[in-house]
Amino acid sequence: xxxxxxxxxxxxxxxxxxxxxxxxxxxxxxxxxxxxxxxxxxxxxxxxxxxxxxxxxxxxxxxxxxxxxxxxxxxxxxxxxxxxxxxxxxxxxxxxxxxxxxxxxxxxxxxxxxxxxxxxxxxxxxxxxxxxxxxxxxxxxxxxxxxxxxxxxxxxxxxxxxxxxxxxxxxxxxxx
Length: 176
Fold this sequence. Notes:
This protein is mainly α. Helices cover 49% and strands 3% of the residues. Strand 1 and strand 2 form a beta hairpin.
């Protein structure tokens, strides 16, 4: 297995996907209602269970590109992080989200050595938990705000779309 060091850290600010379509994966936030995000997350999680069951899930297509397993670990953790952030937004006034370095997490948790079957179950469970969180956002709470450590401001509505882009984009990444 290639060392995690071969992966170039992603330092891009992806918040632009809230205002224009992603030219890579085609995701267009303007075409999705925040109230539809929960169902889309659940559907995507079922697809990841199948992807992670594939015989080549642990293999990197190139040394500088994550394997399906590593992407699956990342998606699992994304669901957990976004669930935490949305819950903060629902319970606190203008919370600041703790910083999360996804690349540091991938190395510290050794994504490439995890068991794909375990990751599939954990991803599926995390997806359903965050989907339930989105499905139960009160109608008058979608505009509640939260701030990322770099100052980016989200509402629950915009963070749900940002979250959905992340998982759609990574499904695209593993399908290339």
